[in-house]
Write a structure and sequence with these properties.
By secondary structure, the chain is mainly alpha-helical. The chain is 69% helix and 0% strand.
């Protein structure tokens, strides 16, 4: 993920691609235009309840939604909002993550793992 690409810049880009003004999006999210400006300028993190509304308002695809969650989490130095429940409800997921951390799993190993899961689920 590009370190210069932030949640705010992502939001601006997607909003502009859909020809939606910051004011229109703020109204749809029931926040002030000033608050929207602060989010887009990365002065405030986006509230989690808004993350559920934004994909529908901006017609985001699955990859864009995942990126949105990741950028929002990065702005808070937290785990993406769509993951904690899944991680906490499955003991094996936590064990896998801790094992990967302990053994310093590489990006290549994670990519191979993802490919294997994706292939098995088809």
């Amino acid at each position: 993920m590009d370190n210069k690409f932030t949640f705010g810049s992502f939001l601006i880009q997607k909003r502009m691609e859909r020809d939606i003004s910051a004011r229109q999006l703020a109204i749809s999210l029931d926040i002030s235009a000033v608050y929207m400006c602060d989010i887009e300028k990365d002065r405030r993190p986006v509230p989690e309840d808004m993350l559920e509304k934004i994909p529908g308002l901006l017609c985001l695809n699955e990859n864009e939604i995942n990126l949105m969650y990741d950028l929002a989490a990065k702005s808070r130095n937290a785990v993406s909002a769509d993951l904690p429940e899944y991680i906490m409800e499955k003991d094996i997921v936590r064990a896998a993550l801790r094992t990967a951390k302990k053994h310093n799993v590489t990006d290549k190993q994670w990519e191979d793992f993802i490919r294997r899961i994706t292939k098995d689920s088809k």
